[in-house]
Structures are given as C-alpha cells and as structure tokens.
Design a protein that fits this description.
4 helices, 145 residues, alpha+beta
Length: 145
C-alpha cells in the first residue's frame, strides 16, 4: 500500500508557510517550477561567521512547495551556505532515487512524492533558492571585506 501524496503533516506544514520578507536582505533569490508555476523567493542575512542569521520568504506554491518551504525555513537558520548546498543536492538526488534520505529534519514526509517526478521541482524550490541566496550573500560579504 502506498502512502497518500498529501498527508496531514504536509497540509499542516503548508498552512504554516512563512509569509514575511526581510527589510534588508544580503541576498534574494527567486526560483520557479516550469512544470506547475510554483514560485519561492528567499531572502537571507548571514551572521559574522557566515551562517544564516535570518530568512524571509514569499511562497506562491502548491501544498508540497509550501510544506517544503516551511521545513526549509524552520531549519535553515544557523547553517552555512555549504550546508544548505549539501542539503539541496541531497534532496535532489533522493527525490530522483539516486541517494539516501537527506539529513534534514522532517524531510521524510516527502517520501510518497518520490514516484511523482512532476512534483519534485516544487519540493526543491525553497532549498534551491535558499542555498543560492546564502552563497550569494557569502560572496558579497567576502567582496566587501
């Protein structure tokens, strides 16, 4: 028996999607799914050690994209750009069936989506935008030093 694609946990996370943007982000990146049109914009501020200190988001996505954005936002603060890139890459591989479950709290709720490749882009949006924004912010910090 297969698990339902939209379960109570996904719907709970989707209902808790972050809705605030940062006033003065160090970097902002928007990602869009060409398959369904979902969009996620991520604002990032890094601390003096180059780790995410604050995150803002604008999410216009399906329930899977909203839930993934919530999970990303809940656990991105305190992580380095490299850690976010590793999580993004692990998520991409896992969804494609080419890797182990990523080391990200709560990510297992997306297991039922693995056979639905058309849904993968929405699930990846926040991780892709967040990793890219953090890398850009770190580059800006280095250039300013």
């Amino acid at each position: 028996m297969t698990a339902p694609l939209y379960n109570t946990e996904i719907l709970r996370l989707a209902a808790a999607t972050p809705t605030h943007r940062l006033d003065a982000p160090m970097a902002t990146v928007e990602k869009r799914s060409p398959v369904c049109g979902s969009r996620v914009t991520v604002d990032v501020v890094l601390d003096s050690e180059g780790r995410v200190a604050d995150i803002g988001m604008l999410v216009r996505a399906c329930a899977l994209g909203q839930a993934s954005s919530t999970l990303f936002a809940q656990h991105a603060v305190g992580r380095s750009p490299d850690e976010l890139a590793t999580a993004r890459d692990a998520l991409t591989a896992w969804l494609a069936g080419d890797g182990a479950e990523p080391d990200w709290p709560g990510i297992a709720i997306f297991t039922p989506a693995i056979p639905h490749s058309a849904r993968h882009a929405s699930i990846r949006l926040a991780f892709e935008a967040g990793a890219e924004a953090a890398a850009i912010a770190l580059d800006h910090r280095k250039a300013a030093a």
